[in-house]
Amino acid sequence: MGFLGRHRPTVASCPVPELPEVEAYRRLAQGALGRPVRDATVYDPRFVRGAASARTVVAALRGATFRAARRHGKLLVLDLGAPRGGVDPGPPAAGVPGDGTRLGLRFGMTGRLVVDGLAGVDRLLYASDRGDAVWDRFAVRFEDGGRLVMHDPRLLGGVELDPDESLLGPDAASVSPAELRRALEHSAAPVKARLMDQRRLAGVGNLMADEILWRAGIAPQRRAASLSAAEHRRLHRHLRTTIDLLLARGGSHLGDLVPQRHPGGRCPRDGAELSRSTVGGRTSWWCGRHQR
DNA sequence: ATTGTGGCCTGCCCGC
DNA sequence: TGCGGGCAGGCCACAA
Hints:
Blueprint: H1 7-12, H2 19-29, E1 37-42, E2 48-49, H3 54-61, E3 65-72, E4 75-81, E5 102-106, E6 112-115, E7 118-119, E8 136-142, E9 147-151, E10 158-161, H4 177-184, H5 191-196, H6 206-216, H7 229-249, E11 275-279, E12 282-286
Parallel strand pairs: 2-10
Antiparallel strand pairs: 1-8, 3-4, 4-5, 5-10, 6-7, 6-9, 8-9, 11-12
This protein binds a DNA duplex through loops.
């Protein structure tokens, strides 16, 4: 141990919560549907985001049930059903803030979801593997005794009552070519920054952006508006196939480029040493030989 | 309006 | 051996 680059690939072999991880959490959360909530606990008030206070969030949950688990980009939305014996409010109006019918879960970088003791993702990059209850930030206790827990050492995630889903762009897993083009055209920003802008396109984080651009052969610092029609098509194709691949493999860290995102790392395609720089405020790795 | 920057938050690993 | 600093990245406030 100790020589340059030895530890980094090891660390990078653990997932960061991006779209594939949140999709795994969504499936996990389906196991929480239809079960009456006995109580909810906010262990750290900083974990509650948005206008509603921790007290309001807890009040909205007590006696309710989760009726659906949806994913929009990296946001997991749990639709709240009526309290037991109450009048069902009917289908929720997605994107309407303030109606008290939806609970949004964000995982930041180190957040994880645990339902009845089962984690949706085995390990997290930069998150401790220890399941210390110290880092439980929010929990829902069901009448049947089970629990839904959000665990987040760094508090970069959070829960929000009635998150404004209209602020999110189209979901990256189903974005159409025209939608992707609209997210990129006329922009002087680097194409990578635009891909990661959740208002334009929801679901792509730093690791996936590097993987997608590497596969598409497009340099991350290229101005978004400078992409040709052929590059738009190529980027869309690789965006969709990369997401499908990572969903199938089960994690955003399971791309081909990710293991090489460290000093001395080489392009898996042509063997060139990868370049590193900051693009869109994030550390970016790319191949100067084939990404143009 | 768009685009860029820094701060939040903690664990880990480095050099001193 | 301990300590300080850099770094990881999603998201937000803020500046230009």
